[in-house]
What we know:
- Helices cover 49% and strands 11% of the residues.
- It starts with a helix and ends with a helix.
- It has a three-stranded mixed beta sheet.
- It has one domain (2-135).
- By secondary structure, it is mainly α.
- It has helices at residues 2-7, 34-41, 55-65, 91-100, 105-135, and strands at residues 14-18, 30-31, 69-76.
- The protein has five helices and three strands.
Amino acid sequence: MAEWKEHIPKGIGLLCLNDGFVGDKACGHGITTKNYLSVIYNQQQFPAHFEHLFLDTLTSDRSKEIGEYVFCENANVNHQHHLVGNIERDQVNEQTTIRARTGIGDKKRKDNMDQLWIKGERENAIRRKKEALANE
Length: 136
């Protein structure tokens, strides 16, 4: 909470906890606000069309690009995942991974959103960030 108060006092940012696996590369375990989601996604929620993969990467990448990503190395959480080796792969993981690769797939969804980001959404997010910080 000290990091939050110091670096994100107006609730505009992404605070990433240290999961001991991904580190500061992407925020699989983090804290943010609906107001910040409005900045990077122009809505007060995460995009609903992701099935399982890449939403953490997309959110982290955008936050880093607009200077609103804070990694808390000493705020440790246990990332329970079969890739880490601390749990077995289960039916839920198998089903969500299959869903994430069905249709266009989560990777393609992220890639499409990245293209929109490059083509103007980044600038819109920066504008929304300035407005949000000015209104707080």
